[in-house]
Design goal:
single chain, 651 residues, alpha+beta, 6-stranded mixed sheet, 47% helix, elongated
């Protein structure tokens, strides 16, 4: 009993001290500004990537939505179907618990800073407990904790996707695995709860924590020849996990897709462990150079750090006579790690900047694997075990404290440029927007609050995330699919219904219609042009453009960033590229251009003899209507690419 009490006190001490180390790491990198719940500058402006805008917009829509069941679904996104904010990566459990507090306080409220602090704290706490299983005392486990709270993937993920900063879930699962193995147990309320919590934070953690759980149950069952208890435990755990997922809306509707990239695109490159380059070219090494990557390899960032890279071969050599025995003892854990690694590498095997080979898979298998299409992330439990192996191996060395300190000095010295860069990114983001809004025209001020719904009639709109924030700020719903998963079929059906209404001259007066493609806009606008302000709206640089139908605002005048659709509206080449066409110009001759077929384009080209641009006239020799949906015009011109981006007229 005394030994048990002493052990519990030691574990509590390690957990508290590890938590304090994690908090210290957070404060050094993030500062205290993100902990101000009324400061959402870094959420709106983004940092490193724009994804935080998606997470924050999901929270804003959910906060203003009527409370319904399932709990974390809002019909204001992907309207009218709605979607769970799990698919905007808004951390549904945090949103659910913060919603009453946010509504009670009123005004701006963001929880992403505090959630990240909690992740860093628990990263420190559970890594201290994990290291404490492989080293006595307090100093060496805390040195090991420092290794985990300075882990490059922690900073890379927390800065890109807040919810994926919860890597303490993996560490906690590994701690419980080793702890329960030593105690000869398989059942643990902590592990049970951990698996359930994972689905409420981010579904990608589910295969990681459940893989560790499965390894524990298999090893226990095979060793003890007892299957009934472990099977019941796993079954009840899965039922509760699915239950929480259902409660939070993860199975709401028929959300199936969120992009064209399938399994294999975001795979782990074979150079990932020693490739120090993060997103936006940030280097996490003072010594090792950036390695080439291909496709979505960047999402499988897994740089170990120079200290670990040096230590691991030495540890392996030192433990060469024990490795086989340990692998046999932990055969199920080794097996799931192998499976996770192979899944992360995927059927598309890449090394540096080339694809070595690709293994064909049946379409159904690719579709199933694409549930976790960013498969490179599933390597994280293996990554954490590699860090642990370096630490545990060094703890067996003579003068292990000195060697640990030396390894940590090399490790932190090496990875510090990347961590410092992330500190600078956050320091800037809490003051000014890293990705400023392109909604600069006074058009947006005039429509703010006028409409109840923004209808993205076609395509993915430019600056879609700021557009989502705009809609949320003005209590508007939107069908814009900015979530990670949505029903592409239902979205297309709803859009076709809207296009049919427009073709019949029917406008919903509470709806602002947006098009991303000018050709689609021109095909739809003619029947309703007398009932609305119709035209294009751009930003100051001209890089973002929306084609707009705004009911009830006909005859209104806006600033120079707006071009009204009338008789003087310019003609432009179709922005179309394939094997034959390059941005609307036929590659083979460079004398033929194409326009999306529309009443507007036909009216402009009807009986026209010249196409005019920038003060010059080009004779029209042929107008070809043989390809449905397109008007192909042949000109007397040497190189029609000079017409790219030009506002054209006819004569």
């Amino acid at each position: 009993m005394l030994h048990k009490n002493s052990l519990q006190k030691q574990q509590l001490r390690l957990f508290v001290l590890g938590t304090l180390l994690g908090i210290a790491a957070f404060l050094l990198v993030y500062g205290i500004v993100p902990l101000d719940v009324t400061n959402d500058t870094f959420c709106r402006g983004g940092y490193v990537e724009k994804d935080i805008q998606q997470h924050y917009a999901g929270w804003l829509f959910y906060r203003e939505s009527a409370l319904s069941f399932p709990l974390c679904v809002t019909t204001a996104i992907n309207a009218p179907q709605g979607v769970s904010i799990a698919y905007t990566d808004s951390i549904p459990l945090a949103a659910l618990f913060c919603r009453p507090l946010a509504n009670w306080l009123g005004g701006t409220f963001q929880y992403f800073g505090w959630f990240t602090l909690l992740c860093f704290a628990l990263q420190g706490g559970f890594s201290a407990l994990l290291c404490g299983l492989f080293s006595e005392g307090t100093l060496r486990p805390l040195l090991g904790t420092t290794l985990f709270v300075s882990s490059p993937i922690l900073y890379e993920r927390a800065f890109r996707h807040t919810s994926l900063g919860a890597q303490w879930l993996v560490l906690a699962a590994l701690y419980l695995y080793f702890s329960l193995r030593r105690e000869g147990r398989y059942a643990s309320r902590g592990l049970f709860l951990l698996n359930v919590l994972a689905i409420g934070i981010h579904p990608y953690f589910l295969p990681m924590t459940y893989a560790v759980t499965l390894a524990l149950l298999l090893e226990y069952s095979v060793q003890r020849h007892q299957w009934k208890g472990p099977v019941l435990y796993l079954t009840s755990n899965l039922i509760c996990t699915v239950g929480l997922g259902w409660l939070l809306g993860l199975f709401y509707g028929t959300a199936t897709n969120g992009g064209q990239a399938l399994y294999g695109y975001f795979s782990m490159n074979l150079n990932s462990l020693w490739n120090p380059v993060g997103i936006n070219g940030t280097l996490y090494s003072r010594l090792l150079p950036a390695q080439n990557q291909i496709n979505g390899n960047y999402d499988a960032f897994a740089y170990l750090g120079l200290g670990v890279l040096i230590s691991l071969p030495v540890v392996v050599f030192h433990a060469r006579h024990r490795i086989g025995k340990q692998l046999l003892r932990h055969w199920a854990l080794a097996s799931v790690c192998l499976i996770l690694t192979l899944f992360a590498i995927s059927n598309t095997v890449t090394a540096n900047g080339v694809t070595l080979f690709s293994i064909p898979l049946p379409g159904k298998v690719v579709e199933l694997c694409s549930v976790f299409r960013s498969g490179g992330r599933l390597f994280w439990p293996v990554y954490e075990l590699l860090l642990l192996s370096a630490f545990a191996g060094i703890c067996r060395f003579p003068a292990s404290r000195l060697v640990l300190v030396l390894m940590l000095v090399i490790q932190i010295w090496d990875v510090s440029p990347g961590i410092c860069q992330r500190h600078q990114d956050m320091a800037a983001a809490v003051q000014t927007a890293a990705f400023p809004s392109a909604l600069e025209s006074n058009f947006w001020k005039n429509v703010a609050g006028r409409y109840q719904h923004i209808e993205s009639v076609q395509g993915l709109q430019d600056d879609a995330l700021h557009l989502a924030l705009f809609a949320a700020d003005h209590s508007m719903t939107t069908n814009d699919p900015f979530a990670a998963r949505y029903d592409t079929v239902a979205l297309e059906q709803e859009r076709q219904k809207i296009l049919q209404e427009l073709a019949m001259g029917v406008l919903r007066q509470d709806t602002l219609y947006l098009f991303s493609d000018e050709g689609a806009f021109l095909q739809a606008v003619e029947p309703v042009k007398e009932q609305a302000w119709c035209g294009s709206v751009t930003d100051q640089t001209g890089t973002s453009t929306w084609y707009v139908i705004a009911p009830g605002l006909q005859n209104q005048e806006f600033d120079r960033l707006c071009t009204v659709y009338d008789g003087s509206y310019p003609l432009r080449l179709a922005d179309y590229t394939d094997a034959l066409w390059n941005r609307g110009v036929l590659d083979s001759t460079k004398k033929t251009v194409c326009f999306a077929d529309s009443p507007f384009a036909r009216a402009k080209l009807d009986n026209a003899k010249y196409l005019c641009a920038d003060g010059r006239e080009y004779a029209i020799t042929l107008v070809d209507e043989s390809d449905p949906g397109w008007l192909m015009v042949t000109l007397e011109i040497e190189d029609a690419t000079v017409l790219w981006g030009q506002e054209l007229t006819t004569r």
